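Lesson 9: reading folded outputs for more than one chain in a single document. The general rule is that every protein is listed as its sequence immediately followed by its structure tokens, and records are never interleaved. Here is the first one.
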Amino acid sequence: MMKRVVIALAMLPTLAISAPINDFSFKSPSFNGSGYSSHVLTIENQEQTRKATLQKDIQAALDKKKADGENTNVKKFLNNLESRIYAQISQNLATSMFANSGSCSSSASSLTSPCGSFDFESNNITWYKNLDGIVMQVTDVGGNKTSVTIPLSSFQFGN
């Protein structure tokens, strides 16, 4: 009999009662929908910042590699040599321009015959002397002319 009571009780439907949890809500905007657009924008900004940081790091590494390649002793030597050669050329040009040769004097207003000329990397440098000073003209490959006037009378020193 006991067995029958146990079986009968087991067959009785059980009543389950459930109630919603009042204080529960999803924290993620992906689930609750509140503030979803700002959530997506935040994620997008983080991704863009990461990409920009990676790009800057890559560019910095490339720049460092290039700088290291140009900072060898051979490159330093060649740059120094090139600077000295250009300095010597400009010194020789200035010495030639300021040399006291009486046969190279033009009239005060006209530049008729040049006192000297020099071709430098497809640019022509010509200078004239007149009573006011030295006029140097640089003509580039395109034919554009630049003139520089050096007034010699203002550079005279008194005794």
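And here is the second record, again sequence then tokens.
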Amino acid sequence: MNRLIPCLVLTVAFAGPIPAIAQEPVPSKPASQAPPAQVPLKVDLVVSRYAGDKRVSSVPFTLSVVANDNDKTSLRMGVDVPVPTTVFSGGPNSAIPQTSFSYRSVGTNIDCSARTVAGGLFKLDLAVSDTSVFVP
């Protein structure tokens, strides 16, 4: 039996600071108490599926994330798929099938946040949820 194994490839590009204009000057804090600067980042993510050693699919995603923003970037891509349920009603000799449908979400959900760490590096908090329909 072959299983699909999701694989994740991640690259981060530095987009550079975005200038901001304030209406009134903000009093500056001492350097030891100043919050870290917000840095825009471009996060490229590839979700790949494998059946054994063979790659079955590969889907790229790009997110814009601001480091040190205390907020996360979310991406939701998916659909609701109808799942049929059949029940039989009636007596033992006159079973009548009745089909109803419930819906299940299928797709990719990505949550990402970033912050700076020592040495000019970034720490990414990345949560990926990927579901799909599988017919044996």
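What the second record shows: The longest strand covers residues 96-117.
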